[in-house]
């Protein structure tokens, strides 16, 4: 059989979002997870990229939050998701327009809240 290859991670640059260390993500005990889909900007490989924050996690006994973020298109050569230490300087929410702003911009269907 051939060697198993894994997608490579983009090379980090100064000012990029910091990947959560494996030791933090594998602490014994229950993590507190909050599933939440939010559009964000994340700094990766020296550039701001749009992404989706899918999970907030507080590892057991930790004071920090970790965010699971996906960005870009799926790619077999490059890993485009990861767990990152939350820092508002490197992971920023993308403001969502209000329903009124969407309608005034020409939206014909507006969904507010959760079902």
From TrEMBL:
Residues 1-22 are annotated as: Disordered. This is Uncharacterized protein.
């Amino acid at each position: 059989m051939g060697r198993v290859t894994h997608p490579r991670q983009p090379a980090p640059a100064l000012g990029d979002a910091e990947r959560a260390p494996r030791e933090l993500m594998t602490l014994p005990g229950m993590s507190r997870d909050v599933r939440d889909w939010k559009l964000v900007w994340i700094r990766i490989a020296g550039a701001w990229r749009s992404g989706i924050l899918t999970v907030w996690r507080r590892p057991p006994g930790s004071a920090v939050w970790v965010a699971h973020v996906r960005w870009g298109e799926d790619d077999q050569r490059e890993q485009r998701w990861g767990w990152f230490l939350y820092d508002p300087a490197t992971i920023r929410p993308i403001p969502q327009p209000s329903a009124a702003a969407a309608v005034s911009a020409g939206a014909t269907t507006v969904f507010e809240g959760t079902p």
